[in-house]
Write a structure and sequence with these properties.
Length: 537
């Protein structure tokens, strides 16, 4: 095993082939094209749901969400109490495993790393969900001052920036803010790489996710709002700059740490156009799963039931009609059989009945009805797939995962808001909505460098990155890891020459250090307040 192997990872949030391929073909991303032409590439499948905290949580721990327990920005317990997630929820990460083996590790801006956790032999600058530039966002803490002195315009993509509606800013200004963000990220990466030798370094560019949420309609030729001028503007300004930052980071890492390294470019999920949002709550009521949103016990139907509806109407109506009305009334249970919550696209169902038989019945009724329900406007099925938690998750957090995860069809999202005016559907518009683009399960993977063949159409899972990186560095992943080494990105001879080393043993649960706890308790309140303002909590 060559113990001098090194790894550089570049993250492109929401990076998707449906945008990157045209960008490369039309000459806006020549460096990325070179990497694809010379290396191995394909689809990196995200987690279910395909959302930032779950996907980046699995990326850096190598385990499924049932093992790390993070499936959304906020997760709910059985009593429906929300819990806002952070790095403190995750078990030991790739960075900690590699750092504790004696290798040098650097991490810049990866989501789900705030508050910063101690890394032996390494440093960390936290990513999205860092509340503000005032927060303690580095490990070691003194790195923050050093970074801010070297890159005075270093900025953090806070929740406020990530939640600007495209209509609130002129198009060019919005793009300019995101371009500046990736530029300062690139500068920070070059600065941190220059500080000393590294065995593993990752920089993550998050602005692509925000650009695509805001302007997917200009990047998707099939979208009714597609605009060639704006599309060109985005490619010329944003994606071209992203390509330059990838080149700059790759070259800086190679110059400092030698050419004998592996480059991985990864995304946490892909992207697609977002056309229609389904407000599911009124439907849950109509189908008898829940009370009407906001209904009180004085609900007139409940009252009719209480006083004996059949008795009251029997003298006036034929028996058939009375039976039909009574049956309908019985379907309305007046207690909520399910609780429903959402990520930015998928839906989570928590079965609330205690009785196991009733729970099973509710589950089957719901799956059956959801799988038949169509959008009355388009005639299309809305739910592509309903997953039972046992089918997709396993591990120590299985108990607290939602019972069902609903994955909508292409172009749809689910909403747990009570819709204005009781409308069931909302057609997404760039004038009023924040997200004309939404996530897709297929992210991207590009591998380039020593031992990598020219190969395309590889398929891997986001949990495979951690064991693959550890393998390349001469370490093997812990037994708890769900992922596998992505052997397709290596030449046969490389695999033969580099058998897996013995597993390093570390406790799965990281030590909380007092300093981190102090940062977190101070910042958590601020973050929660912002989430409330933004309607997340
Ligand atoms: Zn996103």
């Amino acid at each position: 095993m060559n113990m001098n192997h090194k790894v550089l990872i570049i993250g492109i949030d929401g990076g998707t082939w449906t945008i990157l391929r045209p960008a490369m073909a039309e000459g806006y991303m020549p460096y990325l094209k070179r990497l694809v032409d010379e290396g191995a590439s394909g689809v990196l499948e995200s987690t279910v749901p395909a959302i930032t905290p779950a996907a980046w949580g699995s990326f850096q721990t190598g385990v499924n969400p049932g093992q790390h327990g993070v499936y959304n920005f906020q997760c709910w317990d059985k009593q429906n109490n929300p819990h806002f997630v952070s790095s403190k929820d995750l078990p030991i990460t790739l960075w900690e495993y590699v750092g504790s083996s004696g290798k040098q590790v650097g991490v810049l801006n990866v989501p789900m790393t705030y508050p910063p956790r101690k890394i032996d032999n390494g440093f960390m600058v936290t990513g999205v969900l860092t509340p503000s530039i005032e927060a303690e966002f580095t490990w070691p803490p003194e790195l923050k001052r050093e970074l801010m002195e070297a890159i005075p315009d270093y900025d953090i993509l806070t929740l406020d920036v990530a939640h600007v509606k495209p209509s609130e800013l002129p198009f060019e200004t919005f793009v300019e803010v995101m371009v500046k963000n990736i530029e300062c990220r690139g500068k920070a990466a070059a600065f941190l790489i220059g500080k000393g030798l590294l065995d593993l370094f990752m920089v993550h560019y998050h602005a692509s996710d925000i650009i695509q949420h805001a302007f997917m309609c200009y990047l998707d030729k099939e979208h009714p709002l597609y605009d060639e001028e704006k599309s060109k503007y985005l490619f010329e300004n944003f994606y071209q700059k992203l390509d330059q930052m990838i080149e700059r980071t790759h070259k800086a890492f190679g110059e400092k740490n030698g050419r004998d390294h592996l480059l991985l470019i990864v995304s946490d999920h892909g992207f697609q156009s977002h056309m229609r949002e389904w407000h599911i709550r009124p439907w849950l009521y109509k189908e008898g799963f829940n009370n009407a949103p906001g209904a009180k016990s004085s609900d007139s139907v409940a009252l009719a039931k209480k006083i004996g509806l059949g008795k009251l109407i029997r003298p006036f109506l034929p028996k058939k009609s009375v039976d039909r009305i009574e049956k309908k009334v019985k379907l309305k249970p007046y207690v909520n059989r399910v609780a429903f919550r959402c990520s930015c696209r998928e839906g989570f169902v928590y079965l609330k009945e205690e009785d196991p038989q009733l729970r099973e019945k509710t589950k089957h009724d719901l799956i059956k009805k959801l799988s038949r329900f169509k959008d009355p406007k388009t005639g299309r099925m809305i739910i592509e797939k309903v997953y039972c938690k046992e089918d997709i998750y396993h591990g120590r957090c299985l108990d607290k995962m939602p019972d069902l995860v609903l994955v909508p069809s292409a172009g749809y999202s689910l909403s747990d808001q009570v819709p204005p005016g009781g409308e069931w559907f909302h057609t997404i518009s760039i004038d009023t909505d924040m997200h004309v683009g939404t996530h897709h399960k297929d992210g991207v993977l590009i591998a380039h460098g020593n031992g990598v063949p020219v190969r395309q159409n590889i398929t891997a899972s986001i949990v495979d990155i951690m064991p693959t990186v550890m393998y390349y560095l001469g370490l093997s992943a812990p037994d708890v890891c769900d992922g596998q080494i992505i052997t397709d990105i290596f030449m046969r001879e490389f695999l033969d020459e580099n058998p897996q080393e013995a597993c390093i043993k570390l406790d799965m649960i990281h030590e909380n250090n007092d300093q981190i706890d102090t940062y977190w308790s101070e910042d958590k309140k601020e973050l929660e307040d912002r989430l409330k303002d933004l309607g997340y909590m």
